[in-house]
Amino acid sequence: MIKVQNNINQTLFQIIDKKIKNSQGQVLAHLDGNNIINSMGQIIMTIDGNKGLSINNDTPLVSHSDGQIINTNGQIIGKLIGQGSTEEYTLGACAFILYA
């Protein structure tokens, strides 16, 4: 499990079994291959390594490094805490951009 937190240590989401869950345990989206799929079945983002990409033009929107969520300006906007794969860490960074 990975906790997705903001810069004031509030847990916003959890990544469990390649699913984005809110604080009530509802699944907001899940990872299917390299695609992030929302609860309506739509692809809303893709991942490539440690980057979350726009579905429109593959432009990086967010990334992570050393447990930190980084926006396109290089600013640290949140953190990822816990054990998981690179895919799950990237899913957590994308969750921050998509739902926070």
Give a short synopsis of this structure.
The protein is built from one helix and ten strands; from the N terminus they run E-E-E-E-E-E-E-E-E-E-H.
Mean pLDDT: 97
Name the poorly predicted regions: none
Task: Assign the structural class, choosing from mainly alpha, mainly beta, alpha/beta, alpha+beta, or little secondary structure.
Answer: mainly beta
Strand content: over 45%
Strand order in space, largest sheet: 1-2-3-4-5-6-7-8-9-10
Question: What report would you give on this structure?
Answer:
The protein has 100 residues and is mainly beta. It has one domain. 14% of the residues lie in helices and 49% in strands. It is built from one helix and ten strands, in the order ββββββββββα. The chain has one helix spanning 86-99, and strands spanning 2-5, 11-16, 19-21, 27-32, 35-38, 43-48, 51-53, 60-65, 68-71, 76-82. It has a ten-stranded antiparallel beta barrel. Strand 5 and strand 6 form a beta hairpin. The radius of gyration is 12 Å and the shape is globular. The chain starts with a strand and ends with a helix. The mean pLDDT is 97.
